[in-house]
Design goal:
Keywords: Signal. It comes from Cellulomonas gilvus (strain ATCC 13127 / NRRL B-14078) (Cellvibrio gilvus). By secondary structure, the protein is mainly β. Helix content is about 0%, strand content about 45%. The protein contains two helices and 53 strands.
Length: about 600
C-alpha cells in the first residue's frame, strides 16, 4: 500500500459524509518494507470528477460561519504527487474537482493549496481516505481506492480554546503549548493567557524558568504529554500547580541530637545510588534555620534521585544521604551530621609560590572536603574519616606528589609535601580520515579534575598531552569528523600512543518508491537518515525518490540504522502527516561506496 494514516481526531462517519469530531488524534504514518513488499493498491480507474459540499456541524459552510464563505478543497495522490485544488462555493459550500484518478487518493478541506497549512484558524482541517468507521482511538487512515464519486460531504470541526490561569507559577520565562509530537503551537510570557484557534485534539503545556531558578532542565511545571484535551468549539481551562510535576523536600539537621543552625544543605541530582560520583547537572541548596530546619519548595527540583550533603564549619559534615523524590510528594528526610576530620598540607616554598593544586580523593575518585590556602600551604576541612589519596600538583615545575593519608574523626592530620616526581607526557600521531585537527582528550575517573587533559592534533596529525599526573584507568578519546576512537590504559610513565581513525565510506545511494512509483516527497521534505555510534547523518530525498550520502561522511563497515522521516506537513494542528520512523539495520559500505537499493514504502496497519 502507499503512504497511509493521517493523524486525525476522528469520529464516526457514514456513507459519503466524512466528519472529524472531537477526541484523541490519529497518526499518518508509513514504514520501510523490512520483508517482502505487499502488492501495490490497484490504481483508481475512470475517475474524472469529485463533487460534494463543505459543512460545519452539518450546516453548509456559508450558513454556519459568518464572514467565511469558502475554503480550499484538495485532492492528493501520495504515490504520484498529483494534487488538484479548488475553492468551495461561497454561497452553497459546494465544490467540484476534475481529477486524474490514477492512484489511491485523499480529499482535504480547509488546507492551504500547498497542503502544508490551514486557511482558517476558526476551523480544523478535514482529511478523508478509505471508507470505514472510526472511533475515538489512535488508528490509521489509508487512502481511498474506490472510484471518485459525487456527494462527498466534508464536515469541519470548529476550533477550540485553552485558557491558562496563573495558579502558583509566579516566576517563569516562557509557557509553551505543543502538540503531542512536540511541535510548538503558541507561547506566552505572562498569565493568565488564552490560546485560541486550536484544532480539537491533545496538547501539552510546559513552563520554563530562568536558569538560576531551576536547574536541569528548566521546567518547573508541565502537564502530562497530551494532557490538555481540546474539544470542538469548547474551552479548556488549566490552573497550573508546581506540585503537579515537581517534588518538595524538607527535614532537620542535627548533631549529637541537637539542631545545627546555619548549616549548608546541598542537594545534587545523581544517576543512581551505586554511582555516587556520577552527579548530573541539577541541584538546589538551603541553609538551616535556628532550629536546624531546611526546605526545598515545589518547582525547585525535578523528580529523580538526589544526594544530600550537609556542611557546617571546619569539621562538621554529614555522610552522603540518597533520596528519591516524586512529583507531588513532600519528602521528609532528617539528617544526622557528624564530626569529620581535617587535613593540613605543608608545602615547600617553591610549591607555594607556584600555587600548586591540592586535591584529596576518596576510594571512588570523588573529591572531598573544602580547601583554603594558608601561609604554609593549604587546609582541607570536612574530610570524612578513612583512607584517602592526596595529590599535590605543581603545573609550573611539572611535578607532583601523591600519597595515602588517614583521616580521623575530630582530628587534624598534618602532611609535609614536596612535589618532585615528574609528570608524564602522552603523545602520538592520529592517522586516517579527518585526522588533522582531531580533538584528543585524556580522562581519568580516579584523579578527578586532575585527570582531564585536552588538545588538538596538528595539521599532520601529531598531538602531545603534557604535564599528566600518572594513574590507573585512564581513557584517551580521539574525536574527528564522523569518527571516534577510545583507548583505555594504565598510565605509569611517558609513552607514545598512535591512533588510527576508521575508514569512511564512499558515496552511499538509495531510492524510495511508493506503490511501485518513485516517491517525490510531496508535499513535505523527506529525509533518509543513518543513525548509530552517537551520530546521525541525513540526506534529502529528491523529486525522483533518490537520496545520496556524500563520500567521507560516514564510517565504513559498521552497522547503522537506516530510517526515513519527513517534516510535519500541516502546521498548527495536533496531528501530523509524516512517514513513520521505521528502520532497518544496514552495513555501511567501504571506500568504494555502495547502493542500498530500492526501498518500498508501505502502510503500517
Amino acid at each position: 500500500m502507499p503512504i497511509g494514516a493521517f493523524l486525525v481526531p476522528a469520529g464516526r462517519y457514514k456513507g459519503r459524509m466524512h466528519r472529524i469530531a472531537r477526541g484523541p488524534v490519529l497518526v499518518l504514518t508509513a514504514a520501510l518494507a523490512l520483508v517482502a513488499v505487499p502488492a501495490a493498491a490497484e490504481p483508481v480507474a475512470g475517475a474524472t470528477e469529485v463533487t460534494g459540499v463543505v459543512t460545519v456541524d452539518g450546516v453548509p459552510l456559508p450558513d454556519a460561519m459568518d464572514g467565511l464563505g469558502s475554503v480550499t478543497v484538495m485532492y492528493w495522490e501520495p504515490s504520484t504527487g498529483e494534487r488538484r485544488t479548488t475553492e468551495s462555493d461561497p454561497d452553497t459550500g459546494a465544490y467540484a474537482l476534475d481529477v486524474p484518478g490514477t492512484a489511491p487518493y485523499y480529499l482535504a478541506a480547509n488546507v492551504t493549496p500547498d497542503g502544508v497549512g490551514r486557511e482558517s484558524d476558526d476551523l480544523a482541517p478535514v482529511f478523508v481516505g478509505a471508507d470505514g468507521t472510526h472511533d475515538y482511538a489512535w488508528q490509521t487512515l489509508a487512502p481511498a481506492t474506490d472510484a471518485a464519486a459525487t456527494d462527498v460531504t466534508l464536515d469541519l470541526d470548529r476550533s477550540g480554546t485553552v485558557v491558562v490561569k496563573a495558579g502558583d507559577l509566579h516566576q517563569f520565562d516562557d509557557l509553551t503549548l505543543r502538540t503531542i509530537g512536540g511541535r510548538l503551537i503558541d507561547r506566552t510570557s505572562s498569565l493568565p493567557a488564552t490560546f485560541s484557534g486550536l484544532v480539537p485534539g491533545r496538547y501539552t503545556l510546559q513552563a520554563w524558568t530562568p536558569w538560576d531558578t531551576i536547574q536541569h532542565p528548566a521546567a518547573p511545571w508541565q502537564t502530562a504529554s497530551g494532557g490538555v484535551v481540546v474539544e470542538a468549539g469548547g474551552t479548556t481551562t488549566i490552573v497550573p500547580a508546581r506540585s503537579d510535576t515537581t517534588p518538595a523536600l524538607r527535614g532537620t539537621v542535627t548533631k549529637g541530637g541537637a539542631p545545627v543552625a546555619g548549616a549548608m544543605v546541598r542537594i545534587d541530582r545523581v544517576t543512581s545510588a551505586t554511582h555516587v560520583g556520577d552527579v548530573e547537572w541539577g541541584y538546589s541548596w538551603d541553609k538551616t534555620d535556628s532550629r536546624g530546619r531546611y526546605a526545598v519548595d515545589y518547582g525547585d527540583l525535578l523528580p529523580g534521585r538526589y544526594r544530600i550533603r550537609v556542611e557546617s564549619g571546619q569539621t562538621t559534615e554529614s555522610s552522603d544521604v540518597y533520596v528519591s523524590l516524586r512529583a507531588g510528594v513532600t519528602t521528609v528526610r532528617d539528617i544526622a551530621a557528624a564530626q569529620q576530620g581535617r587535613l593540613k598540607v605543608v608545602m615547600t616554598a617553591a610549591a607555594r609560590k607556584h600555587q600548586s593544586s591540592v586535591t584529596i580523593l576518596d576510594s571512588k575518585g570523588v573529591q572531598r572536603g573544602g580547601m583554603t590556602w594558608t601561609s604554609t600551604g593549604a587546609a582541607i576541612d570536612r574530610v570524612p574519616p578513612g583512607t584517602h589519596t592526596l595529590i599535590v600538583h605543581d603545573s609550573v615545575a611539572r611535578t607532583y606528589e601523591a600519597r595515602r593519608v588517614v583521616i580521623t574523626r575530630g582530628k587534624t592530620a598534618t602532611v609535609n609535601v614536596n612535589p618532585r616526581k615528574p609528570t608524564v607526557t602522552v603523545s602520538g600521531r592520529v592517522t586516517g580520515p579527518n585526522a588533522a585537527r582531531a580533538g584528543v582528550t585524556l580522562v581519568s575517573n580516579r584523579l578527578g579534575e586532575l585527570g582531564h587533559r585536552m588538545t588538538r592534533a596538528s595539521s599532520t596529525g601529531w598531538y602531545s598531552l603534557r604535564d599528566v599526573v600518572p594513574g590507573a584507568d585512564q581513557l584517551l578519546v580521539v574525536k574527528a569528523k564522523h569518527a571516534e576512537v577510545q583507548r583505555e590504559m594504565d598510565l605509569v610513565s611517558t609513552r607514545r600512543l598512535d591512533v588510527r581513525l576508521p575508514a569512511t565510506s564512499g558515496v552511499i545511494t538509495g531510492r524510495l518508491t511508493l506503490g511501485g512509483l518513485p516517491y517525490d516527497g510531496s508535499p513535505g521534505d523527506v529525509w533518509a537518515t543513518l543513525d548509530g555510534g552517537g551520530r546521525t547523518e541525513r540526506a534529502r530525498v529528491n523529486a525522483r525518490g533518490q537520496f545520496s550520502f556524500p563520500a567521507g561522511t560516514i564510517t565504513a563497515g559498521v552497522d547503522r540504522t537506516l530510517a526515513v522521516t519527513t517534516t510535519d506537513l500541516v502546521s498548527g494542528v495536533p496531528y501530523a502527516v509524516r512517514l513513520l520512523l521505521a528502520d532497518r539495520t544496514v552495513r555501511t559500505p567501504g571506500a568504494a561506496g555502495g547502493d542500498l537499493g530500492t526501498i518500498e514504502l508501505v502502510v503500517r496497519r
